[in-house]
Amino acid sequence: MKNSDLTKILNRDHENKWVALSANRDKVLGASSSLVELKNKISNKDVIYMKVQPRDVSFAF
b or e along 2-22 (b: 16 or more beta carbons within 10 Å of the residue's beta carbon)? Predict the structure, then answer.
């Protein structure tokens, strides 16, 4: 699986929120400040959940 450029689909409205991405990572299906609330909103089980960090924060692992 190749890396996806999420800057094309994520914007400042998504910062510090949980987002649900389509399985192929080309669409944002929903966003919320609470993961539990987001999971309750999204009925599709084939999604990727991730927390979006602010653009000025660097993170590596």
Answer: eeeeeeeebeeebeebbbbbe
Alpha-carbon distance of 47 to 49, in angstroms, equals: 6
- Do residues 32 and 18 lie in contact, with contact meaning Cβ atoms separated by under 8 Å? yes
Spatial contact of 32 and 50, defined as CB atoms under 8 Å apart:
no
**What tens digit of pLDDT does each residue of 8-35 get?**
999 999 999 999 999 999 999 999 999 9
- Rounded-to-integer distance, Cα 16 and Cα 44, Å: 22
